[in-house]
Amino acid sequence: MKKTVEEHAERFSEKAAAYDDSKSEEYHACASLVIDHAAPEVDDVVLDLGAGTGAIALPVAEDAERVLARDISEGMMEEGRRKAEERGHDNVEFAYGEFRDPGLDPDQRVDVVTSNFALHHLADDEKREAIGVMADTGTRRIVLGDVAFFEEPDPEAPFYSPQVDDPATVGTLVEAFTDEGFAVTAVERVHDQVAVIVAERIRELPA
Ligand SMILES: C[S@@+](CC[C@H](N)C(=O)[O-])C[C@H]1O[C@@H](n2cnc3c(N)ncnc32)[C@H](O)[C@@H]1O
After folding, report:
1. Does residue 18 contact residue 76 with C-beta atoms inside 8 Å?
2. Going by fewer Cβ within 10 Å, which terminus of the chain is more open, N or C?
3. How far apart are CA 42 and CA 205, in angstroms?
4. Which of 152, 153, 193, 148 is nearest to 175 (CA)?
5. C-alpha torsion sign, points 192, 7, 72, 53
6. Where does the record place the Methyltransferase domain (predicted)?
7. Measured from the CA of 31, which atom of ligand 1 is nearest?
8. What is the pLDDT along the chain (207 residues), one digit of tens a residue?
9. CB within 6 Å of ligand 1 — which residues?
């Protein structure tokens, strides 16, 4: 991670109020695909990691039983809570949680994990660890939208800030999901530096 968790939290809290109005076409396309692929059932619990102001958590709350939105930035979550209240979503819970420790109750059921434009803040070994934590929730599906490289990124057109972001290749992420007992059932190329990866569990957790 190029910045500490505390530095990322502070950075996002500072821009939380303007965050929703600052996003690119590719970001919106990516978020929309994550929402479509998440496709929760009415009795599903969705865990959204790096939930920010609720770009994924709020739309999926319309179909799911409950959404656990976890983030490290209180400012981003405050925006999310305000929007949830405005939209009448009382089944979304924003609370502090990190990728590598989402702060769930030990017996918390999770059916679908989502994450959009957030995992790239971690280094590759930390991303692998985070994907392990997602798998350990027992979820049947993980939908990850993020900055990730399909090919060598064009240095003239970086889709990320090298000072704070640390994107992986799509291959690294796919390998991490398969290592955790998931089959990657879709890889959507939104941009040569933006991917949506859908992973479905094929190997059961050990009893
Ligand atoms: C670019 S925003 C994306 C927010 C939201 N998912 C979206 O699609 O708009 C990245 C979010 O990841 C959060 N974040 C950064 N590092 C994190 C970590 N280690 N654990 C959990 N969240 C993290 C930030 O606080 C921020 O809200």
Report:
1. no
2. C
3. 24
4. 148
5. negative
6. 46-134
7. 8
8. 678 998 999 998 999 999 999 999 999 999 999 999 999 999 999 999 999 999 999 999 999 999 999 999 999 999 999 999 999 999 999 999 999 999 999 999 999 999 999 999 999 999 999 999 999 999 999 999 999 999 887 777 767 787 878 899 999 999 999 999 999 999 999 999 999 999 999 977 666
9. 5, 8-9, 12, 31, 49-52, 55-56, 71-73, 76, 98-99, 116-118, 121
**Nearest alpha carbon, ligand 1 atom 22:** 50
Q: Are 165 and 171 in contact (CB under 8 A)?
A: no
pTM: 0.96
Q: Which amino acid is at 186?
A: A
Name the maximum alpha-carbon separation found in the chain.
50
| Residue 24 burial (CB count, 10 A) | 11
How many whole angstroms from 76 Cα to the centroid of ligand 1?
Answer: 9
How are beta strands 112-116 and 45-49 bridged, if at all? parallel
Q: Which domains does the chain have, with CATH numbers?
A: 5-201 (3.40.50.150)
Q: Determine which residue's CA is closest to atom 18 belonging to ligand 1.
A: 98
**Residue pointed to by tokens 């933006």:** 194
Nearest-atom number in ligand 1 for the CA of 48 is: 6
* Closest approach atom of ligand 1 to CA 122: 19
